[in-house]
Amino acid sequence: MKYDAVVVGAGIIGMATAYHVLRTNPGKKILVIEKFAAPGQGNTAKSAGAYRNVFSSNTNFTLSDTSVNYFLDIHDKGVDIGLEKAGYLWLFTKEQYEKRKPLFDDMIRNGVELRFIPQNELKQILPDLNPKPDDEEAQMMGLGEIHIGVFGKKCGFIDADRLTRYYEQEFKAIGGEIKYNTEVKKLIVEPNEPIGVPWEPFIWQDVNVVGVSTTAGEIRADKIFVATNAWAPQLLDAVGIDSLIKSAKHQMFVLRSEKMDRLMHPKGLSEKEILPFTILPKSVVYIRPDVHEGSFWVSAHDGLGHGLKFEEDPKPENEFYEYNIYQILRKYLPIVDGVNPSNKWAGLYDVNSIDANPYIFEKGNVISVIGLSGSGIMKADAVGRIATAMYNGQEYAELYGGKKFKVSDLGISNRKVEKELFVL
Amino acid sequence: MKYDAVVVGAGIIGMATAYHVLRTNPGKKILVIEKFAAPGQGNTAKSAGAYRNVFSSNTNFTLSDTSVNYFLDIHDKGVDIGLEKAGYLWLFTKEQYEKRKPLFDDMIRNGVELRFIPQNELKQILPDLNPKPDDEEAQMMGLGEIHIGVFGKKCGFIDADRLTRYYEQEFKAIGGEIKYNTEVKKLIVEPNEPIGVPWEPFIWQDVNVVGVSTTAGEIRADKIFVATNAWAPQLLDAVGIDSLIKSAKHQMFVLRSEKMDRLMHPKGLSEKEILPFTILPKSVVYIRPDVHEGSFWVSAHDGLGHGLKFEEDPKPENEFYEYNIYQILRKYLPIVDGVNPSNKWAGLYDVNSIDANPYIFEKGNVISVIGLSGSGIMKADAVGRIATAMYNGQEYAELYGGKKFKVSDLGISNRKVEKELFVL
Fold first, then answer.
1. How far apart are alpha carbons B128 and B122 in whole angstroms?
2. Of A232, A322, B70, B346, which sees the most CB atoms within 10 A?
3. What is the C-alpha separation between A4 and A179, in angstroms, rounded?
4. What is the pLDDT of residues B173-211, one digit of tens each?
């Protein structure tokens, strides 16, 4: 049982990669191996399901902008990927805004569509927003006055599950194979010319990864893609391929309350009048409406003191909502007062602390596609095409819409990216 | 009990840092905390105890060259740091040499003293060297013919233990404190303005590392240096400071045999006629004489298939000598035939896979001095001075001899180094 390529992980990155590999290599035997029972059930399912092309790094902009173009096009063609053009709305204090002004200027030059909304206009659009929490608690928490909103137009929501299933269906339609409920336990390293004695491989042998050892036995392939997000270190580091990433936990809490309904459809922002993905000026507390369920997902950035560690099954902590997110949220959106989460979950993301751009690199027959740093869904199509170009031995990948991208720019040896300065 | 600064780790990096911090800040309360009973007993003690200024990265060259100058000067002043000016001797096949030729040209322009020794001359200097192993086994192992030797003059051996003790003595002589047998279990993160309720710190609080929790209780300091090499991830990642490094194991085997004695003093290389640190053309198998003990330390690079993982107490594996190092060694140095190790040990080093230059960066009151990638001893003095300049808020460090070094070049945000291409 030997495949041309095996893709480990049927999350959004693995499925987009598998699809583009097979699309450009019709007839090849490509297998996706996934430990869960369906695509996108790992950290893809835990994501905020949002997209933006608002990044300071030119690379991240290109990856997301071309991927979003692809998503918009399939959406226009009638594929239901749960796409909602709701926008992103960053709410900044004067100081925060002024610090970021040069980044916005660069973004606009790059073609990012931004709209700047002063406080008085924001109050008309979002009457429930309290731009100036100034009670004693707010002062203690250091909650600054919202001076301006920065609205990203080519941003919104996407159903991560449906998008992953879209790639899965396309992949299967052209002959791709998937094994679900199959966990890859390790990468198999073998000498290119085995001599058949114990203790192989020896240091004087040329070795390569030749396949994967799974709960369903060994599976061999000429090339192995590792697209396992936070699970990558277990596979890669174990065979001496530095995965370069750490795992960080993020938690999501779902709020559903009749009194919050009137937040859902503000006028004057997006065409469909859906609350954008809205980021408050403190600790990256954000609110992401789920328009179909009539609920709101909220989360926040947890800073110094919160460890970078892998957990097989990370759990959301009530205290993280109650004493952290909620305290900030209710000051800027008093309507949230008294609302408790009706649902919650936690996931991991694979952090690249160096520059927060993805890594796509090859070593020993393994192409690693990792380090998406929490913004993988919105870059998945481009990343899948670049990993594919690496597989095809091309110097440049052609992204959706025809833009060329130098494959080695996301590698290690000749990495050429700008450090992302507009991290959520 | 509050210190101006605490340095975690009394290895060579921690001790050099502590000494330079106190030297430039006389009167300050500086404490080094070490889990072992003496300085340099962790991975410093496991090192090959060698120095070289032969690096392709201009940064690594500067760090090592100025540090070596310092070591040579204290040696000349009569401090016994076990320094032996034996040189380094890289043995290359024609192909390996030609690939590295542009690097050597750059090094020479940089001021690195190299001598190129053709095969016939090598055979005169090292009559026991078999430059062309060509039996069936050698062919199977892919052992190429040694075409040339590249001899680094400003290279040699140093006693890592004595060097670390030198810094310890200097540090103590100016009032530095050290706590041995004290293990730092974790970094203490606290809000700058605690409100004294459970669940602190909250995400809306400004937080910092304020001290360390140790087996001898809590110790507080205004600044904390982490110089713990392979132990850094446990401390840093745990509080959300990405340590960026992975741990890799290296093993050392000691050979002592009367018949090998004649290898010890080749004529025509170094003034004192000591066998240089000699690197064979396959799998970085190297031999490092211990002239005082009359023995030879041998090791090798373990490639793909050997995991990057932390182990509290890594063990050397007989098989790594027997089936790997020994097989290569005895082909190029038949005199080694039949010699078994009389001693062995294993240590870890902290690998920076991205560029193999050190990281010195500050976050949340913690200055991390890590990623030495197996060549820490030879860079220790410069690295200690740069970490000190960061502590002192200086833009440039003054290295030994007066050379200026921009502190942020080894940081993360504005890192400016050349990827090291001349890794052992």
1. 10
2. A232
3. 15
4. 999 999 999 999 999 999 999 999 888 999 999 999 999
* CA-based nearest residue in chain B for residue A242: B353
Distance, CA of A271 to CA of A392 (rounded, Å): 41
Residue B327 Cα, gap to closest chain A Cα (Å) = 9
Residue A240 to residue B304, Cβ atoms within 8 A: yes
**Which domains, and CATH codes, for chain A?**
2-49+161-243+354-410 (3.50.50.60), 88-153+247-351 (3.30.9.10)
Rounded CA separation A255/A294 (Å): 9
Q: How many Å apart are CA B39 and CA B377, to the nearest integer?
A: 13
Q: Is A67 within 8 Å of A400 (Cβ atoms)?
A: yes
Q: B71 CB contacts (<8 Å, ≥6 apart)?
A: B51, B81, B83, B158, B163, B381
Distance from the Cα of A191 to chain B's closest Cα (Å) equals 10
The answer for residues whose C-beta is within 8 angstroms of residue A352's C-beta and 6 or more apart is A244, A245, A358, A359, A371, A373
- Report residue A179: phi and psi, to 5°: -110, 115
H or E segment to which residue B45 belongs: none
The pLDDT of residue B424 is 76
pLDDT in tens, B99-130: 999 999 999 999 999 999 999 999 999 999 99
Q: Residues A65-72: what's their mean pLDDT?
A: 98
Q: Could you tell me how far CA A241 lies from the centroid of its own chain?
A: 23
Per-residue pLDDT of A324-349, as tens digits, reads 999 999 999 999 999 999 999 999 99
A24 to each of A388, B113, B405, how far by Cα in Å?
Answer: 8, 51, 49
Considering only alpha carbons, which residue of chain A is nearest residue B361? A354
Contact assignment for B300 to A203 by CB distance below 8 Å: yes
Chain B contact probe: residue of A204, A317, A318, A359 with most B CBs at under 10 A: A204
The minimal CB distance from B244 to the residues A304, A353, A419 is found for A353
Q: Say if the ipTM goes beyond 0.90.
A: yes
pLDDT in tens, B29-60: 999 999 999 999 999 999 999 999 999 999 99
- Taking the whole predicted model, whether its pTM rises above 0.80 is answered as yes
Alpha-carbon span B150 to B107, nearest angstrom: 12
The alpha-carbon gap from A142 to the nearest alpha carbon of chain B, in Å, equals 7
pLDDT tens-place string over residues A238-273: 999 999 999 999 999 999 999 999 999 999 999 999
